[in-house]
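Justification of computing resources. Each target in the renewal requires a structure prediction run like the one illustrated here; the chain below, 108 residues long, is used simply to show the kind of job we budget for.
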Amino acid sequence: MPKHIWNKDLQSTQIDKDSYEYRSKYTCFNCRSTYLKILPKKTEEITCTNCDQKAIDMGYLFQAPPKRNKRLWKKMENLRQKGFKFDRTGNVVRAKSFLKNHYPSNLK
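Resulting structure tokens:
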């Protein structure tokens, strides 16, 4: 639960930024696995439990493709390298548009 602090200047409560947890999906592109993690702070690094490689924060709206679909996993990795992150609905729409324009075939 976030901690609320009284701000005398604004005469209202504000959420203490260090008190809430960060929830996101972390992905390992090496072994194609995804983990939902709830962390006390956003800055912590996550390692994959299967291969001990660094897991990448993809955002809480990320939907991982099936493990057998190597081509779609490569597309997701390319998206992340281009800076896309699935943490807002607008970013998800932008990512789908990017995939449609750059990878028109086999987008299922």
